[in-house]
Amino acid sequence: MEAVSALTCDGPFRKDIRLREQIDDASDSLLANIGEGFGQATDRHFAKYLYIARGSLEEVRSHLAVGRARGYVDEDSYRRLNGEGAELVKMISGLIRHLLRSDRKSRY
Fold it and tell me: Would you tell me which of 27, 30, 44, 72 could form a disulfide with 56, CB atoms 3.0–4.6 Å apart?
């Protein structure tokens, strides 16, 4: 998410305040939901927050696509960041599957 923040704070992205704030909010939501979910008592509750985090990640990716269409992001940066986002989606999805299979009732 640091790379996305760095991108949105510079160049033409910086001037599109609304899009920049949407990406920042979605990035913050992604990280906050992972943290909040980790603090939950059961695997299923953690997974619930990971679903929300994954949705926020997809929101970041879609806003990057908008930025690309508006000419704020060059093709190489877009491909790299979108690819990293796709990998993160896979990781979060794998963790969700693991948590739902293990289904511990107490994580502590």
Answer: 30
